[in-house]
Amino acid sequence: MKAYSYTAYTDAGRRKRGTVVAETETQAVQQLKGKGLFVSEIGDRARPDRGRRGTAGLWQRRLTADLQMVLTRQMAVLLGAELPIEAALDALRASGHTPGMDAVLARAKVALLEGSPLSDALEHSGAGFPRYYIAALRAGERSGELATVFAELADHLEETGADRAQISTALVYPAFVAAVSLLVCAILMTSVAPEIVAMFEISDRPLPPLTRLVLDVTDWVRTHLPLLAGMGLALVAGLIALSRIGWLRARRDAVLLRLPLVGRLMRQAAAVQYLRTLALVLTSRHAVLNATDSAAEVLTAARFRQEAAQVSEAVRAGNSLSAALDQLSFVPPVARQLIAAGEMSARLARMTERSAVLVENALSTERKRIAALLEPILMMAVGGFVLMVVLAVLLPIFDLQAMVAV
Asked: How far apart are alpha carbons 334 and 351 in whole angstroms?
């Protein structure tokens, strides 16, 4: 089976694009004709190469966070209703999502029909799911709780999306004020400031230091604008590469973990992912060693994965889970204490789940606090910049007035 991308037209002349799964191109055309579509273009939509890493798929268009959330939630509902995986993928494709999601689902179905598990099919579908997402699906496949994993992943993505939306909302007003302020400052520096400079040149008086500084910066930006634009594009490309190339991502994580606030958030997020997966596998009555191995695959930071591997080695050597978790720098002590209590009371899975909820609540509170602080901090920064520009314009005016008065 192959996935074919097509461009076709309806009886009403409306263009439609999408992806169809078929053995051959002829069968794909026949399927589309059976739906009342007139095919104008069709071609084999190859899946991303499984063996390539690093720069593979670096510039490939991926599903947005919102589409990933929608796909995950709908898969949780369909699998929870005990639909087969292939039928669930077909139902999602029939629901009329974007062409990008349709292509992802088509590639996943092709891989599924070739014998790949769903986790591998989604990993190589081009959707851009993060590593912890795929690792959690593999844990769900091993434990037979795939629907539960999809539901928990959907909850996580929805909560992350809500936090992201809250931060974006907090940035709307400061961004609007900053845009208007920059426009006003640009008008002042391009129309008012040159007139003031001309007056000072006639009077042979030196400009105030602040005014001279602002004018020099403005002239420098105007002169080097193409260079600054190129540097901005290079920065965007670098940020994309940092998130998609393995060794660059490891360097980035090592730097971010040293930052006070960002490092704490990364540790809390890793703890939530690790403990959630641990609890899921333990709830499915799997051995503790299987649970630690599955949870280690969820982590994205190289340092955390090394620590998680040491946990598995400690459990394999006969240590208790709570003692082995001392190897992890990102799991808080209170979570380890809850897990130790679970071992003593024979309620390990339940207490592991409680520890995950505890850390997740702390992470959510931290994110909300950051969102609440962003707006006043940004407003103060914008206000300080505007004040500096306005003073740079007003100070020479006051100086001229003082000269005339004398």
From this structure: 11
Strands 2-9 and 38-44: antiparallel
CATH 2.40.50.100 fits 65-158, yes or no: no
- Kindly give, in sequence order, each residue whose CB lies less than 8 Å from that of residue 214, ignoring residues fewer than 6 positions away: 189, 193, 388, 389, 392
Residues 138-152 pLDDT 10s: 888 887 888 888 998
Q: What percent of the chain has pLDDT over 70?
A: 91
Q: Where are the domains of the chain?
A: 2-44, 65-158, 172-405
Characterize 119-152 residue by residue with b for buried, 16 or more Cβ atoms within 10 angstroms of its Cβ, and e for exposed: bbbbbbbbbbbebbbbbbbbbbbbbebbbbbbbb
What letter represents residue 152's amino acid? E
Q: Which of 44-48, 195-199, 216-220, 283-287 has the lowest mean pLDDT?
A: 44-48
Phi and psi based region of residue 290 (left: phi greater than 0; alpha: psi -120 to 50; beta: remaining):
alpha
Q: Pick 33 or 277 by higher pLDDT.
A: 277
Residues contacting 97, CB < 8 A, separation 6+: 67, 70, 71, 105
HSE-up of 227 (CA within 13 Å, CB side)? Answer: 5
Share of the chain above pLDDT 90, in %: 16
336: which residues sit within 8 A by CB, 6+ positions away?
Answer: 322, 325, 326, 355
Q: Would 65-158 and 172-405 be classified into the same CATH topology?
A: yes
User: What superfamily in CATH does domain 172-405 come from?
Assistant: Type II secretion system (T2SS), domain F (1.20.81.30)
User: If we measure between CA atoms, which residue out of 156, 21, 19, 162 comes closest to residue 76?
Assistant: 156
Helix axes 302-316, 288-298, angle to 10 degrees: 170
| Sequence-ordered list of residues with C-beta below 8 angstroms from that of 397, at least 6 positions apart, any chain | 196
Predicted confidence at residue 339, as pLDDT, reads 93
Instruction: Answer yes or no: are the C-beta atoms of 32 and 20 closer than 8 Å.
Output: yes
pLDDT the model gives residue 351: 93
Question: What is the rounded radius of gyration, in angstroms, for the C-alpha atoms of the chain?
Answer: 29
- What the block records as the tokens of 21 is 């799964």
pTM: 0.65
Q: Could you give the CA distance from residue 389 to residue 391 in angstroms, rounded to a whole number?
A: 5
